[in-house]
From TrEMBL:
UniProt keyword terms in alphabetical order: Membrane, Transmembrane, Transmembrane helix
Organism lineage string: Bacteria, Bacillati, Actinomycetota, Actinomycetes, Propionibacteriales
Domain of life: Bacteria
Transmembrane residue ranges: 16-38, 44-65, 77-100, 112-132
Protein name per its UniProtKB record: ATP synthase protein I
Length: 160
């Protein structure tokens, strides 16, 4: 006896990315509002720039890992580790560029920028973990159509 089941689309990575980025943006906007109220416009700009850095770096990394995982699932873990290393390097380069530009401490608060990057990263990771643990991901995929012998419930010799 077989029953018809509806299969939900397996690829929910875009939904997870939008939810994670949205949560991180809300967290960053709250940090910018708090910074503006507590320390002024430099803190608000620092929080906004930190939020853009987190969403940009982690969003691009997530898109890249999802693309590789859909094309070559066997290479997904290796590419994810490489992407994480490149994300850390990219954040470091952004901080070096901001330090060299002279914007830090004059226009952008260094403390609020760093704090927002740390809090935004923790928020991003928390939302990713929550979404990943609440997803139903099958261990294997069943074939779309079973062979006629399997559908009839018979063995090779025709026995039941």
């Amino acid at each position: 006896m077989t029953t018809e089941t509806t299969r939900a689309p397996r690829d929910r990575n875009a939904v997870a990315l939008v939810r994670t980025a949205s949560a991180t943006l809300v967290l960053g906007l709250l940090a910018a509002l708090l910074g503006a109220l507590v320390s002024g416009s430099a803190a608000a700009y620092g929080a906004l720039v930190g939020t853009v850095i987190v969403v940009g770096v982690f969003g691009f990394g997530t898109l890249a890992v999802n693309a590789v995982a859909s094309l070559m699932p066997a290479a997904a873990l290796m590419f994810a580790l490489l992407t994480y290393t490149l994300q850390v390097l990219a954040m470091g380069l952004v901080f070096v560029a901001l330090s060299g530009s002279g914007l830090l401490d004059e226009t952008i608060s260094r403390e609020w920028l760093g704090g927002t990057v740390i809090v935004g990263t923790l928020g991003w990771l928390t939302v990713q973990i929550v979404l990943a643990t609440n997803r139903w991901i099958p261990i294997y995929d069943l074939p779309e159509q079973a062979s006629p012998a399997l559908a009839a419930g018979t063995r090779e010799g025709g026995e039941r």
